[in-house]
Amino acid sequence: MPGPVSRRQVLLAALGTGTAAVALPRTAAAAPVDLLGPGGATAAGYGADEALRWLQTTYDLVLAENLSPPAAARTYAHTAIAMYEAAVRGMPAHRSLGGQLRDLPVPAPRPPAALVDWPAAVVTSAATVLRQVLPFAGADTRERLDAAEAGALLRRRAAGVPERALDASVVHGRAVAGHLAPWIAADGHAGTLGRPYTPPATEPWHWVSTPPNFRPAVEPYWSEVRPMVLTSADEVEPEPPLPFSTEPGSAFHAQAAAVHRQSAANTDEHRAIARFWTDNPGSSTPPAGTPTGLPSGHWMLIATQALALRGARLDVALDTLAMTGVALHEAFLNCWTWKYRYQLLRPVTYVNRYIDPGWTTYVNSPQFPEHTSGHSVASPAAAAVLTDRLGVFPFTDRSHDVRGHAPRTFASFADAAREAADSRLYGGIHFPHAIEAGLAQGAQVGALVLRRIRTRR
Q1: Dist. CA 126–CA 176, nearest whole Å
Q2: Which residues pair with 313 in a beta bridge?
Q3: What domains lie within the chain, and their CATH numbers?
Q4: What pLDDT digit, counting tens, does each position of 218-230 carry?
Q5: What's the predicted TM-score (pTM) here?
Q6: What is the CA radius of gyration of the chain?
Q7: DSSP states of 309-353
């Protein structure tokens, strides 16, 4: 891979005065000629502040819109992809995701001028895509989105970005979003909305709606959403549930008994872990946790904190966020596909029927089938990408400081993923087997994402 100095020399020679670019040969997955920002800066010449700030904005909007877990993952993924594609022409060591993500055309639009302010282009592209993926957003959300975009552009202007470059950056960001728009619209999500669904509930092991919410099944048709990297939504097949049995001493009964026993053994630390990783949407009723931007949002915030801790430049941040977003999208797609294929009941249903009629969970059981655990699938998938991009190091997760949860410190991303998975046992909402099978499933998803996407030249 060329070093940044020699690559920059090549670019400067090709650009001459900085107002035109020489066309270079294109490959299926590589973007055309890279362009420079004001002062001859590539994306690596910028800090990641605006990109990290925009992920927090996205988190806040997802929270406000009360999205489901897989819909939230879709939102973060498309936002992060839009950010990456908006700046990839200013990232000489990187290449477009066009031709790599399923059905995404290549290349992305060429910037209209050499003087592009990459942070401004990133924000504009992300904001435009967010308006598309949140088509039913309320007036308050739309106003917050508009204000966040305007605020970012004001900061870039205050930082000294010339008006001509700022205008060109906005045009470029919108062009990238326009390039992505048909691809996003054709991912099958729209076809999953508003369709009636009746859970089968013909066998004793089938999932039924659970207390205290007793709401309809969440996203039962999500398997119809197009994968980004996986060959099919069900490509990674997890270990199936254990054979169902109500007999004491059977393997399945032991799973339920373990959940019931853990709830009695929970310490204050266990309950703190369960609350920290609850990551419920706004529609979820207490007792544990407060509305959040969902599990995928938690991992995107972990990514932003880690990037800030490492002092990452804009190019590294965009690469990391895009890859993490894709991994989370694929993890939730794969997990949801198997949840509705297995249709397994939640621990609270089994325990109330066969062990303890008065037992309740510490964390509310989500309104979808049990196997496998979404936290257990998504967390190692995200951790695999973050470890690959940033390495192994301790960090403190302050994602929920504003929600009153004490920060938690981890030795590594894998350590955090393990705790996220275990939190579902402490909360009483998953059998141990679904947690372990989910961890293996998520690790496979993360490995496939890393193997099949090459962002670096």
Answers
A1: 9
A2: 47
A3: 24-190 (1.10.606.20), 198-452 (1.10.606.20)
A4: 999 999 999 999 9
A5: 0.91
A6: 23
A7: HHT-BHHHHHHHHHHHHHHHHHHHHHHHHHHHHH-BPPHHHHHHH
